[in-house]
Structure formats: structure tokens, C-alpha cells
Amino acid sequence: MTSSQFPNFYSERTRSSTLGDGVHECPFGRIPALLGSLDSFFSERSLTPDTTLALQTTNSVPGAIVLLWLIQHKFRFFLVPPTQNNESVWENIPAFCSFLIKIEEGNLDAFTLDSPPWDRLLQAEATPKSLKGENGTLQHPQGMLYLRTSGSMGKSKIVSYTLDNLWAQARNSAKHYEFNHQDRVMIPVPVFHLYGLMRAFLPALIGGASVEVQKNSNLIKYLASERRFRPNIAFLTPSLCEMLYKGKRDNTAYRLIVTGGQSIQQKLFEAFDTKFGGALVNSYGSSEMGMMTSCKPHDPIELKCLTVGKPLPGVEILVKETQDGLQDAKATSGNGGGLLYVRNPCAFSGYVADEGNYKLRHQPDQWFRTGDCGVVNPDGYLRVLGRADNRVNRSGYLVSLSEIETRMGELPQLSTVVMLALAEESQRGQTLVAVCVLDTENSNDESSASIDSTIEKIQQNCHEILRPYTVPDRILVFPSLPNLPSGKLDRQSLRHMVEKELEDQNVLQATGRNTEYSNGSS
After folding, report:
1. 390-518: same fold as 12-386?
2. Most buried of 52, 113, 253, 479 (most Cβ within 10 A)?
3. How far is 3 from 171, CA to CA, in rounded Å?
4. Which residue ranges of the chain lie beneath pLDDT 50?
5. Which one, of 360, 359, 380, 383, lies nearest residue 372 by Cα?
6. Cross-sheet strand order for the sheet of 210-213
7. CA–CA separation, 17 and 233 (whole Å)
8. Alpha-carbon distance 104 to 508, whole Å?
9. Beta strands per DSSP E along 260-347
10. Residues paired with 382 in a beta bridge
11. Right CATH for 390-518 from 3.40.50.2000, 3.30.2350.10, 3.30.300.30, 3.90.1150.10
12. Cβ(77)–Cβ(42) below 8 Å
């Protein structure tokens, strides 16, 4: 790791900058000593850069220091998200990892800046023999990062990055967002995902900004941190944006608020942007390519709402028209576009199997098929139209489910809309189900009769604003939708919820109850 890559925590301009988590606050000038205090923990256990580790960390100062130490010493390591409920941590760790380094969350109060008790704060455990790969070692160079993709659309994969590319992408983000030592950056998204790590945490450190990471953020936690930390930059998910807009009473001007993972309905975007000083921007990225595009706060509001901005320096976007043997996307959505391909010289190295061998290698000059559809306007702004596999044949037309979501999202009754296509057939083709969350500001009456009336109104509106073959066959209303730890919609869990609800409907329908539209509370 060259000195030009690792942040200079001794810089004169960062002497007032801090790294905090709401409990502990560390001046930048103390970070090098904290990093040095970790040396003995790893050396005493004979853990060297030739050892492939799994790191289970959280949004905390001790967790951030350990993460920075592994990067500084060019280890190979796999980022493990915190376990859920009774899940075993080993279920998420690939066989090529020899050791697990785990933050002991119950001992975090013991952390001190002067003499941190790393033996109490960290647990080092060798991988059980039953889980190790046949070779026992990983034939990869030092300085590699591994993590799993979100798996929001299917089975997750393990992607690998060189740490050099990780830093290159972080520098690109720092330059794009113009981080500086006067900024105060709130990061309530996980730093063990690339969104929090590559677009927020590392770029903020490179720019010399003060940083506060927050674990398991909610409205009360965020507002308390906002009053104390006084951030002017924040990295949020769409669900956090909606939570803050509805729960925060006063308007607060930020310099920059970045969101990503999934789109925000236009009416919510515009209202949030106004409330927070015109600071909200969309960004577009993936586990494989990192951050590809982003808007800037001074972009026109119509571009900030509808696009994900321009490509970052060095990133190229290519749109290829599709030939599906059906009516093309332009005929059904009115937006044209095609499949999105991206070329980024600092992208991932490839997909890795649990045993450590490469399942696919990616070259720096290679175009990567994102699986999304999009269109680029004459000024170079990218609009993502949705997943290429999130389209169905209805009455001979290729229908984009994302476009239906966008149009239905304009209805005043709705806060969120997600379209699902089921395997069963209707008269027009695959059955379309609109899964909705009501806008509580426009629908305060949550009684069953009121919700049923609202659903009927939504159905009427759909016939007015949608083409006949795109009108949903079923409309379901749920109080909230499931999300992954990364903030993305958990489509697999949502599909299970919908299938269970429809199964219950069929049982009730057999008893004579009309359940064509449901409020999700049968």
C-alpha cells in the first residue's frame, strides 16, 4: 500500500477531523497510533498477509480501525455481514478463509483511545476443518477484498477486488463529491457493503472529512446524531430517506445527500430534496463495477429525480438495443433504451467460488453486462429503466415492470410500488401483482374498509394512466416491504410474502369471499 493511497491522518488540514460512532470519537491524529496498537494482536496469532481472513465488523470505531488495519497491511480478507437471529456466522464464510476475526459487540464499551484492549474487543477463530477447502490455501495475491453480492434478484455471488482498485474507486468518489476537511459525513449504511465502504467511508477519509458511522439506524438514532454531530453530508438508502422525510419536522440544509440501491418515487424525491436544501442525488453502482454514475446537487431537479447522473471519470456506459422477438421497450415504455454495459478499469477481478478458484475472471478493458436496461440522454445523463429480466410478455408486448412502478408511483395514495410477475397465466400473459405501501400522509384511516376503498381507487387510476395490457391483475397492500442489510429491496422475501398472501386469498375465495384485491391482512 503506497503512502499516496492510504489517508494522511497527520495532515495539518485534518487536525480537527474525527472518526466517531456516537459513543467513541477519535481525532484523526490518534488513528495511526490505534492502527499500530493492533500489530501485536495479529503477530501473536501468526496472522500475516498470506493468511486469508474473514472479518465480521459493524459500524463502530473499533470495527473501522480493524478494517483500516487490514487494508493498510494488504491482507486478503472477506467481509462478513452481522448474523441474523440464530444464524451461524460460518454459514456466510467461504471455505477459502483460514481465520475469522470478529468484533465482540458486547465489549465495545471497553474501547479506549489510549490503550484499547484488543484481546477483549476481537475474537480470532480458526475455520473448522469441516469447512475448509481441499487445498486449504488461496492462490491469490496479497491485498484482496472479497464480499458477497446482495442476492436481491437471486443467489448471491462472491466478488473479488484488488485493494488498489478499491482505493482508486474511493479516490474517484472523493473527487466527484468534493470531500474536504470541513465536511461532516454521516454514514448510517453498513461499511461492510461496497456502498458504505467505497462510496462513503473511504472517500470521506481521503478527503479529510469528519465521519460518524451509525449502526442499525432508525429515526430516533439519526435525529439524535444529527443534533450532536451536525452533518452536512449523508449517505442513505431510499427507506432511510422516506423515514427522515416523514419523521423530521424541521427543514435542514445539507451540502450533499447520496442515495442508491433502488429508485425513489419522484414525488418523494422532490419533497425530500426541498426539505433538505436541494442536496439529494441519485447514484448508480453495483458490487462488480463499484460506483458508475452519480448526479450532483446543483443538477436540475428533473434530472436528479429521473436519472442517476453522468459516468464518473474513467467509467464508460454503452447501451445496446435488444432484440427479443416481441415489441421492443420503446413501444411499451416510450423511453427507448436497451441493455446497459459498463467498462471500468478499476472494477472487480471476478467471481470466486467458495473453494477459492475463480469462476469468472474480469479484465480491466472488458465490457460488463449489468443486467439493467437504461437510456442516456443527449447531455450524458443515464436513466435506469429496470432489470432486463424484470420484463414480461403481455398481449405480445414486452412490458417493463419498472415503468409500471414509476407510473403507479405518481398516484397520491401510494408511497411505494413494486411489481411482481407470477408464473401463473392470466388472459394477457403472466399474472402481474402490484405490491403497494400506502402514503400515510394521504391515507390516515387504516381501517380495513378504508384500505379496501383505497385499493379500488388505485385500480380505477391504473386503468386511467396505464395501457390496458400493463394494468396489474392483483393489487396487494402491505404496511412495509422487506429490505436486505444493504438497504436494497429483498425481492425473494417479498415474493414469499406475496405467494403466502395469495394462497390465503385462494382459501378465502373458496369460502365465497371476494379477494381480487387485498389489503394484506387476511
Report:
1. no
2. 52
3. 14
4. 1-4, 135-136, 324-335, 511, 513-519, 521-522
5. 383
6. 25-27, 18-20, 210-213, 184-187, 233-236, 256-259, 280-286, 290-294, 310-311
7. 14
8. 48
9. 280-286, 290-294, 310-311, 316-320, 338-343
10. 376
11. 3.30.300.30
12. no
User: Cβ(375)–Cβ(365) under 8 Å?
Assistant: no
CA distance 418 to 402: 8
Looking up cell 408511483, which residue turns up? 409
Residue with cell 455471488: 157
Determine the 3-state secondary structure of 364 from DSSP. coil
> 426 in helix, strand or coil?
strand
The helix/strand/coil state of 304 is: helix
* pLDDT (0 to 100) of residue 328: 36
- E-only strand ranges, 127-279: 144-148, 158-162, 184-187, 210-213, 233-236, 256-259
pLDDT of 156: 82
Residue 449 has what pLDDT?
A: 64
pLDDT for the residue numbered 314: 94
Domain 12-386 falls under CATH 3.30.70.20: no
Contacts of 3 (CB under 8 A, 6+ apart): none
- Whole-number pLDDT of residue 308: 95
Cβ-contact 353, 158 below 8 angstroms: yes
Question: What are the residue boundaries of the structural domains of the chain, listed by start?
Answer: 12-386, 390-518
Q: What are the tens digits of pLDDT across the range 212-244?
A: 999 989 999 999 999 999 999 999 998 899 889
Integer Cα distance of 488 and 237 in angstroms: 8
Give yes or no for a contact between 290 and 344, defined as CB atoms under 8 angstroms apart. Answer: yes
Give the pLDDT confidence score for residue 327 in this predicted structure.
Answer: 36
Q: What is the pLDDT of residue 208?
A: 94
452 residue type, one letter: D
Q: Is the pTM of this model over 0.90?
A: no
Residue 471 grid coordinates: 394494468
The Cα 83–Cα 161 span in angstroms is 23
C-alpha span between 336 and 330 (Å, rounded)? 4
- Grid look-up 373458496 returns 510
Mapping DSSP to helix (H, G, I), strand (E, B) and coil, where does residue 207 land?
A: helix
Where b means 16+ CB within 10 Å and e means fewer, 457-476 reads ebbebbeeebbebbbbbbbb
Cβ contact 236:217 at 8 Å: no
CB count in 10 Å sphere of residue 277: 16
Query: How many CA atoms lie within 13 Å of 468's alpha carbon, on the beta-carbon side?
Result: 4
- Which sign, positive or negative, has the C-alpha torsion 18, 21, 24, 30? negative
How many whole angstroms separate alpha carbon 413 and alpha carbon 415?
Answer: 7
Cell output for 503: 394462497
